[in-house]
Design a protein that fits this description.
This protein is an alpha/beta fold and 353 residues long. The protein is 38% helix and 20% strand. The structure holds S-adenosyl-L-homocysteine and iron/sulfur cluster (SF4).
Length: 353
């Protein structure tokens, strides 16, 4: 019989499993705390659980862990990118970012991404699977243990790694609830942000399910033809509909929405792009986060010069947008999503050739 992935079970689900096995309900709470609060992933270290119960646990459950493959540290030491492997040799990435002595982590939600945005390294990969809640949690736990050794801890989590989180809605939602659980990390919902390419149905659902979690929208253009060229999903979820859904989200949650806008040379940061962007933002309590495009090998898109980036930023600023221009962080280690995995696979190819 296949063993159950114990890290994938919420406390309620774990309690149910324990009762079915004739075990005590309060033991389920203890086990949940070992796993999700103390981050101990070996049944034999659960010292308040009897040996007999531990043997039953070992026969029914497994603790699936991520296998560390490699990591890269950026020159400024502020970005560390980790590559992990899942069963079946599937690779995923997680990134640790330090900003003013606080650590954010960027987690993956899928292996590959079926949405295939034209500029994105993850979109170039074959879409393989949705991650389970446990596989999302393990990215957090691995990095939390890594920081613990430095007497530090995670302050923010962004779902901005590989994949589209809203195409894996249930597992993402579950991972947030489990990280938030009092018996686990007790991590505040205010410190999560989900980044989405703009799936309308899921945004509507999210505005009911997770009112405290931050939302970031990958916008990249407010002109339908341009956005569709970059992001095929815009053909099914066009800007007007997206806007309606976001207004509804804002009405329900009162949250400020972050709009990510990658700057691509000669494409989306010309005068008219700025004019339209200003009009679009008037309806929202917003933060526009300008991100210089991170070059992806094999793609035609280029990063604008620093001067061009600043001109666009200044135009938006002078029209009273709430805007930031991201300094290019960790671009020496290809910190944009999917890029480390692509590199690793190139290395693998070279090794086997
Ligand atoms: N699928 C989700 C979350 C993962 S992508 C989404 O699209 O929002 C996270 C962010 O990285 C998105 O805003 C995406 O547009 C951006 N991104 C992808 N490739 C990039 C690149 N090469 N340079 C800069 N940003 C990139
Ligand atoms: Fe998928 Fe996001 Fe990359 Fe688009 S940008 S292909 S939605 S991961």
């Amino acid at each position: 019989m296949e063993k159950i992935d114990i890290l994938d079970l919420s406390l309620e689900e774990l309690e149910k499993e324990f009762l079915n096995l004739g075990l005590k309900k309060f033991n389920a709470l203890q086990v949940y705390q070992w796993l999700h609060k103390k981050l101990v992933f070996d049944f034999d270290e659960f010292t308040n659980i009897s040996k007999e119960t531990r043997e039953i646990l070992k026969s029914k459950f497994e603790i699936g862990t991520l296998k560390y493959v490699t990591h890269q540290v950026s020159k400024d030491k502020k970005t560390v990118k980790f590559l992990f492997s899942l069963p079946g040799k599937r690779l995923i990435e997680s990134v640790l970012l330090k900003y003013k002595n606080r650590y954010s982590i960027c987690v993956s939600s899928q292996v590959g991404c079926p949405l295939k945005c034209d500029f994105c390294a993850t979109g170039m990969m074959k879409f393989e699977k949705n991650l389970k809640a446990s596989e999302i949690l393990m990215q957090f736990y691995y990095l939390q243990n890594y920081l613990k050794e430095k007497n530090d801890k995670i302050s923010n989590v962004v779902y901005m790694g590989m994949g589209e989180p809203f195409l894996n809605y249930d597992a993402v939602n579950k991972s947030i609830n489990m990280l938030n659980s009092k018996e686990g990390q007790d991590f505040s919902k205010r410190n999560f942000t989900i980044s989405t390419s703009g799936l309308i149905k899921e945004i509507d659902k999210f505005s009911e399910d997770q009112k405290q979690v931050g939302l970031a929208i990958s916008l990249h253009s407010v002109i339908d033809e341009k956005r569709s060229e970059l992001m095929p999903i815009n053909k099914i979820n066009p800007l007007e509909k997206l806007k309606g859904s976001l207004l509804n989200y804002q009405k329900k949650t009162k949250n400020r929405i972050t709009f990510e806008y990658i700057l691509i040379d000669d494409f989306n940061c010309e005068k008219n792009d700025g004019v339209e962007l200003v009009k679009f933002m008037k309806s929202f309590n917003h933060l526009v986060n300008l991100i210089p495009y991170n070059k992806v090998v094999g793609k035609p898109y280029k990063t604008p010069s620093i001067q061009k980036q600043k001109n666009f930023y200044n135009y938006l600023l002078s029209h009273k947008l709430n805007v930031t221009l991201r300094e290019t962080k960790g671009d020496d280690i290809q910190a944009a999503c999917g890029q480390l995995k692509v590199k690793k696979e190139e290395i693998k190819d070279e090794e086997t050739n």
